[in-house]
């Protein structure tokens, strides 16, 4: 299992030399990729050095214990520490998702339940915004379609991180959120106090770092401009600032009207289109190599029911990992870490099993 460490340490040394070369920083995109990889390998290097040091300490303690029994008391703690360090290295050697360091575009769409689904969509958006704030991430609403009661029929938000460590990237955490989120509660529109079940869909796309990553032929785009409108058809402005872009080869349609500027709406639409095209390419690649899928926890089936939010019981349950907790009120205020950590752990176990480790 540890044979590959030597190769990774050699790569770490090469990247260290490369980062010291001023020429690298003339290419911002490449410098960003090198920094990400260097941060990832630095964690492996540090963990490997700790494992080696504990191994040396344990060997020394066993030798000294032959002459002085006092050293024998240190052996159990050193053995436990060595086992923990070995497990840490083993997990760090799991091949990472290459997109983990990417920022994301997260989309929340109304599902079954009409007005209640849209209201829950607003609750989910608030939950993700609070979670992002707790991580020090930046958020930007790209597009929103509000319902009459104050919910969202559809809302798209870009979430960005400045973390150099891929394991702390936005995609590394939020990629598990895609799917159907089910809510059980008494809707505000319910006059008899009955509990209803509604659903809201969440889509998560890794954002494209550089436009060149996803090649788009301008001849493949159909671009329409029209006048923005709000809830109930109320006019938002009197200019044709809203933009709808259709990618003809795939049929993907992106519409934006959040900004008053047609140029801003077009730029936002292109960001979302690139992200959706990148996701489509990755889904097709995963389908072709389904026997080697890197994760069973993050399926490509966007119709999958992944989580239930039961308000009467203050309970949240993730159906993929078996996680269950009775602190839904805290989760809805952004305390998502334990839920997402359960997804990360399950994902790692799937990867380890796939590697036969």
UniProtKB/TrEMBL annotation:
Every Prokaryotic-type class I peptide chain release factors domain range: 227-243
InterPro entries (alphabetical): PCRF (IPR005139), Pep_chain_release_fac_I (IPR000352), Pep_chain_release_fac_I_sf (IPR045853), Prokaryotic/Mito_RF (IPR050057), RF-1 (IPR004373)
Modified residues (N5-methylglutamine): 234
Region (Disordered): 286-305
Main localization category: cytoplasm
Swiss-Prot/TrEMBL keywords: Cytoplasm, Methylation, Protein biosynthesis
Entry keyword annotation includes Lyase: no
A Pfam family: PCRF
Low complexity bias: start-end ranges: 287-296
Residue stretches in coiled coil: none
Similarity section: Belongs to the prokaryotic/mitochondrial release factor family.
Protein function: Peptide chain release factor 1 directs the termination of translation in response to the peptide chain termination codons UAG and UAA.
Protein's recorded name: Peptide chain release factor 1
Organism field: Leucobacter muris
Phylogenetic lineage: Bacteria, Bacillati, Actinomycetota, Actinomycetes, Micrococcales
Gene from which this protein is expressed: prfA
